[in-house]
Amino acid sequence: MKMQDDRNLSSFKSTFVFGTATAAFQIEGAANEDGRVDSIWDRFCAEPNNIVNGDDGLVACDHYHLWEKDLQKLKDLGVDAYRFSMAWTRIITSTEKEISQTGLDFYQQIIDRLHFYQIKPFVTLYHWDLPQYLQEQGGWLNRDTAYQFAKYADVVSSHFGNQIHTYTTFNEPWCSAMLGYLHGIHAPGIKDRKQALQVAHIILLAHGLAMPLLRRNAPMAQHGIVLNMGPYDAASLSEQDQLAAELAESENNDWFIQPLLEGCYPALIQEIYPDELPDIESGDMDIISAPNDYLGINYYTRQVICHNPSNVTFTYDSVTPEEAEVTAMGWEVYPAGLTQLLVNLNKRYEMPPVYITENGMASDDDYDEVLVNDNQRVKYLREHLYAVADAIEAGVDVRGYFAWSLLDNFEWSEGYSKRFGLYYVDYVTQERVPKLSAHFYKDFIRRARSR
Ligand code: FCB
Fold this sequence. Notes:
The chain is of the alpha/beta class. It has 16 helices and 13 strands.
């Protein structure tokens, strides 16, 4: 352990960006204030049995009112950047395309304060909270939603321009498409592969349509997209498991990255699911594959895949190795997978510069009135930061790392039952308490800086 603590941090150049990340729906609350309208997640939470304990985003961390205190924590941590999302539902509040000045003002004060603290704003335009009024017109199955998104991106970027350091069009299209439309555990809760692949296509199209507008309105900013990815390892050397892992990787990683970087969908998926492929119009793939300034990668774990012909949806299962250390989500702790993923992507694709835009873990943290001793998270973060350093040393152009998350928050279908924060949130008093991991991260950044 000591040896690890003494590891040379010289792989993190002085320009390397350390940050933390959050998302609007998970922290803001104030769901019915100042003209905000419902998103698909408000609706999904309101339906029974979708969210653990029937939780919702009505109050969340009340960041809408406590944002000054929360940004102060960023200052305390000494981060270079803060990745947060804007709520479309606060900014364009109806199908008549009404633009809410109050919504824009809310984010303006956050950006102003970040600049005052010399913290770079990394803004995500879409972190899953589609306005319900668009869902009622078909949501991400309707091509017009892609144009509506471009309009929203235009509104935000023409208002904030270069004040935003880095724009992200979408956070994790995989989740919106696959969890929302194939697994059915995220809003809007549908289980249909054809629809899922169509949604993925329309979201990628929306990304491509927004990019030139973002570039025009904010020419000094960086523009790109964030994908969640991980390695897909076969559970055994059997040919069936190897093929299953290849299929899983194509369906979950390549289906999203290949169209962006190479302008086509993976051949294997086209072969295996010929009847479930999306409708693609001529010109779409060129729009989708226009260059990105960076690619954001969210990494939490790897998947170990075995063949299972009785699983009708996938023909494969994801299994957790018996000896694996897991988090409160049941996700394997596997830092080497981050290096493996980055090195393999770098071999396979012509990669733009990369930011690790999310990485972190859930644990059953307890506040003992003094300190939250989240030792497992400290170890997790340290090992993943070293895994990033290993990737940099292996030649991958990684420019930054964002810990998920600044605060405990609304963890989607898990509600408030899963805590990912560097700061513990008492949801009764809205008090925030730094966990051991906040102290660790602060110290890590300081050491990386003071080489
Ligand atoms: C990612 C999401 C983020 C958070 C983490 C744990 O998939 O982008 O909002 O829920 O998982």
